[in-house]
Amino acid sequence: MQRKDNKFLIAIVVLVLLGISIGYAVIGGDFSLEGSLTVKGNTWDIRTGTINDYETTGKSTGTLPKASAIEDNVIDITYTVILDKPGDSYSFVVPIENHGTISAILDDIENVVPTGSEKSLDYKVELVDYEDDGKIVASTLEKGIKLPAKDKSISTINVRITVTYKDDNNESIALEDISGRVTTKLRFIQDKNY
User: How large is the greatest C-alpha to C-alpha distance in the chain, in angstroms?
Assistant: First the structure.
């Protein structure tokens, strides 16, 4: 009987020592879990395309803006226009292209004009689409318009900018020359749901 009790006691001691050993290994040992992570790079690349479809009325002339890229989330479209008399206008279409992988949303539209021209000139910025026959269909360019990113292609919206010398009963006629460059600023933000 004493032998049975010794075997039982030895078994308990072995189990206690085994438990202590495992506990020490868990508490004192290093436990590591390894894996890998890949983060796909994205690009924010909004720019103007080739400026086209310019149109003049009266004796107006102007210089088409050069292509530009987004800087500080703003695309500056800077141009020079000469309008001779009330009713003259100058307009052109600027493609705004998304070459990146992040969708963009138009957040603000601002015209920076020469001092004193506000009373004499009217500035219109429109969204335009081309029909199959080449005819332009214009609509209001509003904040919130999305310029989606497309995989391996370019997404484009076309913007028409028109400057018109107002013709409203002599109240807007400039009594002296007004000169300076005009800039239309289109501010884009990144679409968080791209």
Answer: 126
- Rounded to two decimals, the pTM is 0.72
C-alpha span between 159 and 123 (Å, rounded): 13
Asked if residues 57 and 173 have their Cβ atoms less than 8 Å apart, the reply is no
- pLDDT score recorded for residue 4: 63
Q: Are 128 and 48 in contact (CB under 8 A)?
A: no
| Domains defined along the chain, listed by start | 46-190 (2.60.40)
> What does the block give as tokens for 87?
């009713």
Which residues of the chain have a pLDDT value below 70? 1-5, 21-33, 169-176, 178-179, 194
Instruction: Give pLDDT tens digits for 104-151.
Output: 999 999 988 877 777 788 888 999 888 777 777 888 888 999 999 887
Q: What letter would DSSP give residue 67?
A: P
Strand (E) or helix (H) holding 74: strand 74-82
Contacts of 186 (CB under 8 A, 6+ apart): 74, 75, 77, 96, 106, 108, 109, 159
